[in-house]
Amino acid sequence: MVSVNLAERSYNVHVERGASKRVDRYLPEGAKPTAVFVITDDNVAPLYGGHAAGAFEAAGLPVFTEVIPAGESEKTLATVERLYHAMLAAPLDRKSLVVAVGGGVVGDIAGFAAATYMRGIPIVQVPTTIVAQVDSSLGGKTGVDMPEGKNLVGAFHQPLAVVTDPETLSTLPRREISAGLAEVVKHGVILDAAYFERLEALGEELLAVEPDTMHNVVLRSVEIKADVVSRDEREGGLRAILNFGHTVAHAVETLTGFTTYLHGEAVSIGMAAAANVAEVMGLCDGSVGERISALCEALALPLRAPNISAAEVIEAFGRDKKTVGGVPRFVLPREIGKVEIGVRVDEGALREGLVETGFSA
Ligand SMILES: NC(=O)c1ccc[n+]([C@@H]2O[C@H](COP(=O)([O-])OP(=O)(O)OC[C@H]3O[C@@H](n4cnc5c(N)ncnc54)[C@H](O)[C@@H]3O)[C@@H](O)[C@H]2O)c1
Ligand SMILES: [Zn+2]
């Protein structure tokens, strides 16, 4: 069990094989929901939606289940509004519990619905993708996309508990496995060299998502993210460390219309680029980039985006919502396990690092 320490909003993350079959047992002491509202998507519903619903039914609670179509395109206010109507029809009151069973899309939508329904009701996250287990279920960020851009409307709403079952990863499509592992690699680079070495030793074995292996990997990544979030709930400083590889990743995703690369694939390219930029600036030696690239390659992740130019990437930075006054601040590696945040990079070094990464000149 890992604790996210946020004063009265603290909660526990239970990483355990088979946990998704007994979600009801992980509610904090004294939590007595009047009803349970399971939100899942149409891929996950037949696999794990019933487990969560069944556990609460067996515990004697009224259970409602709402299944949304899978996919990022459903992460909209329209979906949230449909959920509100179903929640009102159930009806849920302020002591009812939302249970999100699925990947980051379900978690973000359900989280936002729970954050806003009757000004906020509790939610338990049951993440079933690697991305959701090591990233989106932790930290309380919830929200939806707008036609103008991703994640532009949302709220902070910390869960009551997170119930993480590594066994659910066995049904993930191969590309989703690789993409999720990019965030795992990121955790090693930013804060834990020994963890990175364990990941290197496992290499492509990770792609088999063997439950005991994934238990250990997910647990360490959860510890790392929980620690960062506990120290910086609202991204005042340290939490920016999690953006390693993400400045270039966001540019790549935007420039390809969010259709070519999964987020984690873009993060893989972004981490390679950040290492190259750091090397050009003399912040680290070439071995850092080589080790990141070798590990990502073993995990079947892309390392370059050949159809995009360095100039296009640099131009896209100016439009990034995380850019301060047009100048992106980078998270760059010093060595494996140690990064620097808020680094100013001049355009020459940036261009050189990007071209080195395979963006056309
Ligand atoms: N709130 C945060 O802090 C945060 C952090 C990172 C990402 N996100 C968000 O998370 C979303 C991406 O999450 P994701 O990568 O989990 O994508 P996703 O939720 O779309 O899931 C990926 C696919 O896998 C399917 N799936 C989920 N679990 C499965 C399982 N166990 N077996 C088989 N199929 C399964 C889903 O139906 C979907 O088709 C994005 O919207 C992103 O913005 C949020
Ligand atoms: Zn990410």
What does this structure look like?
The chain has 361 residues and is an alpha/beta fold. Helix content is 43%, strand content 17%. The chain contains twelve helices and eleven strands. The protein has helices at 45-58, 77-89, 104-116, 130-136, 174-191, 193-202, 211-231, 246-255, 263-280, 286-298, 310-317, 347-356, and strands spanning 2-4, 11-15, 36-41, 63-68, 97-102, 123-127, 141-146, 149-156, 161-164, 329-335, 338-344. The strands form three sheets. Strands 1-2-9-6-5-3-4 form a seven-stranded mixed beta sheet, sandwiched between helices. Helix 4 packs parallel to helix 7, helix 8 packs across helix 9 (263-280) and helix 8 packs across helix 11 (310-317). The termini are far apart. The chain binds nicotinamide-adenine-dinucleotide and zinc ion. Nicotinamide-adenine-dinucleotide (NAD) binds next to helix 3 and helix 4. The site of zinc ion has 4 residues, from helix 9.
